[in-house]
Design goal:
2 domains, single chain, mainly alpha, 67% helix
Length: 475
């Protein structure tokens, strides 16, 4: 007879494979064996198909452990009235924003170091001033030698806005969440489009493969449905998503356009077309905006379209418009972590650190699995000179999104400003090995070289910034 531990291992494996039916069966057996096991109830909450069942499972956890954090978090996400707790990564509530003068007083060596570089910056400024406003860099770098009551905010070169496609299906339109290895229990959300199909078995198999990220299987089963139902717009839409998640934007666009041709009022088709315009190459931002606005006009409850419109507005440096779109997303009835994350970005762009901090803390409380929350959290802190406190969220973000150099460079900056130049140099060198065009990494390494007295190496990195900036301008 199979042991309880073996049964538990099989149940976890089924859940990991997103075979929710099998996971439910196995956890049901486990709960019959041990109905007071908190872990079994927690995992069961992730396997059950309805919100009512999920709430029941989590309530059982609270009966056994009234202070269980995971159960409270899950119930809160389900809309239950559960008081908020401290977020997973803590930020002091009484953050003391410090001016550059105050920081220089606390660290006189750093203040002297900055002042001693003014002569070198005057020399470098001859080459830098006039290209992308490089004179701003000199002003900011020398701020500790001048009166300045504003919080520290490092200047960095900003390139044209680009959108980065996630390989994880979006939770608003699929059944998957971009989760990371954190102490949290999450459940899948329904597919946006769910219409009856004659080939129900093939359709369900396609959706199971879709949720697992098994794109080849998903396409095969979707094609089987199309063979019987060639005029189903939603199937083409899902196929477009599958192609898009694989980076095949040409086939994705073709599928979305097929959905639009079948049903010109099918709002998700316009959303998909817009996402190809945003994430494909070349970008077509104006076309994307038109398609997104068409999508929300056809379906005012299309949550994801509002989020895309907000992201587009932020990329166009229009934070106020982004906040309006995010409010419309919330008005659809889905107050999600993605909305609060967007609000945090918008407030940060407006220089409103207090509201940005509030929004990012709320996003973290709502969904601790979103990696970008930790990145933006750190950016809020760093924008106010709180570099030491930014290390912890950046470590989480960098560990769970190792291919995102933004986290690595921000973490290097945090170590540098906290006095650990060795760690900063290791990270910035690693970043440049991965991306030789990372301008922020060159700027930070130039700072490090200047601290070490290696002016020739610093000058070489500044020259790299100039070269890359000229190339970007010419493009």
């Amino acid at each position: 007879m199979i042991s309880e531990q073996e049964l538990y291992s099989q149940a976890l494996a089924a859940l990991q494979a997103k075979d929710l039916r099998q996971a439910r069966d196995l956890f049901s057996q486990l709960l019959k064996l041990n109905p007071k096991n908190i872990d079994y109830w927690l995992w069961m909450s992730a396997a059950v198909p309805t919100p009512k069942e999920r709430v029941y499972c989590l309530r059982q956890v609270l009966l056994l452990d009234p202070e269980n954090h995971e159960a409270k978090h899950g119930l809160r996400m389900a809309g239950e009235d559960i008081p908020l707790e401290e977020p997973a990564v803590k930020i002091p509530s009484n953050v003391a924003w410090k001016t550059s003068l105050e920081q220089a007083d606390e660290n006189p060596d750093r203040g002297r170091g900055l002042r001693s570089r003014l002569a070198l910056y005057s020399f470098l400024g001859v080459a830098i001033i006039g290209v992308f406003g490089f004179g701003i860099y000199l002003a900011v770098r020398s701020s500790s030698a001048n009166q300045n009551s504003a919080p520290i905010k490092r200047w960095t070169v900003t390139v044209s806005p680009t959108f980065t496609e996630t390989v994880t299906p979006n939770p608003s339109t699929t059944g998957s969440l971009p989760s990371i290895a954190l102490d949290a229990t999450f459940t899948a959300t329904p597919i946006y489009v769910a219409t009856p199909h004659n080939r129900l078995e093939a359709y369900n198999a396609a959706m199971r493969a879709y949720e697992k990220g098994d794109w080849a299987q998903a396409l095969d089963y979707f094609q089987q449905v199309l063979d019987v139902e060639p005029n189903d717009a939603d199937i083409y839409y899902h196929m477009g998503d599958v192609y898009r998640f694989q980076g095949d934007y040409a086939n994705a666009l073709s599928a979305y356009q097929s959905a639009k041709q079948i049903d010109a009022n099918f709002a998700p088709a316009y959303l998909g077309i817009a996402q190809v315009d945003l994430y494909g190459s070349p970008q077509k931002l104006d076309e994307a905006q038109t398609a997104l606005q068409t999508a929300v006009s056809l379906d005012p409850n299309l949550h994801q379209a509002y989020l895309e419109l907000a992201s587009l507005s932020l990329a166009q440096n229009n934070a106020d418009v982004a906040l309006d779109w995010l409010q419309k997303a919330a008005d659809t009835g889905e107050d999600t972590a993605a909305i609060e994350l967007g609000r945090a970005k918008a407030y940060l762009a407006k220089g409103d650190s207090e509201d940005a901090l509030t929004a990012i803390q709320k996003a973290n409380q709502m969904d601790r699995s979103l990696v970008e929350v930790y990145t933006v959290w750190a950016q809020v802190l760093q924008a106010n000179g709180d570099f030491a406190d930014s290390i912890q969220p950046l470590q989480i973000a960098a560990a769970n999104a190792p291919s995102d150099l933004t986290n690595q460079i921000l973490l290097a900056r945090a170590y540098y400003e906290s006095g650990d130049s060795d760690k900063a140099m290791q990270l910035v060198n690693a970043s440049l090995q991965k991306d030789s065009k990372a301008i922020d990494a060159y700027l930070l390494r130039a700072d490090l070289y200047l601290d070490a007295g290696d002016t020739d190496a610093a000058r070489a990195d500044f020259n790299s910034v100039l070269r890359l900036s000229y190339n970007d301008f010419d493009a």
